[in-house]
Write a structure and sequence with these properties.
single chain, mainly alpha, two-stranded antiparallel ribbon
Length: 126
């Protein structure tokens, strides 16, 4: 969706450098990058607080910070190219806003599916 519409990350295209593209748009390697990155951030957030809304916000922030490192590097390596370059190492501001949105949504979804496990963890920590 993001590649076709430009929402929420801005208009960009993946190059051939990170693998063949599924349906001509998304390299097969992309899902293998986002999921571990997100889960790592979520796990670190749970180590720092047991308050659900804080876990969500901390995870969202850490996902953004990770992208602020990874995205400029990927642009420099020409893994993907933005239609309109931004002032932060060629990455547009909309990309970072998109990562805030997707990180927040992924946090909410993960919190929903792990609510039982988190309750057990919180009870053990108290």
């Amino acid at each position: 969706m993001a590649i076709i519409t430009g929402f929420p990350y801005s208009h960009f295209q993946y190059t051939e450098l990170i693998g063949f593209k599924i349906l001509g748009h998304t390299p097969y390697t992309v899902p293998f990058a986002y999921v571990p990155l997100f889960l790592g951030c979520f796990y670190i957030a749970t180590l720092n607080t047991i308050v659900k809304w804080k876990i969500i916000l901390l995870t969202t922030f850490m996902v953004l910070v990770a992208d602020m490192v990874l995205d400029p590097a990927a642009v420099a390596l020409k893994f993907w190219v933005y239609q309109s370059q931004g002032i932060f190492y060629g990455v547009p501001l909309m990309n970072f806003l998109g990562w805030l949105l997707s990180g927040f949504m992924a946090s909410l979804i993960t919190m929903y599916f792990l609510k039982t496990e988190l309750k057990i963890l919180i009870n053990q920590m108290q």
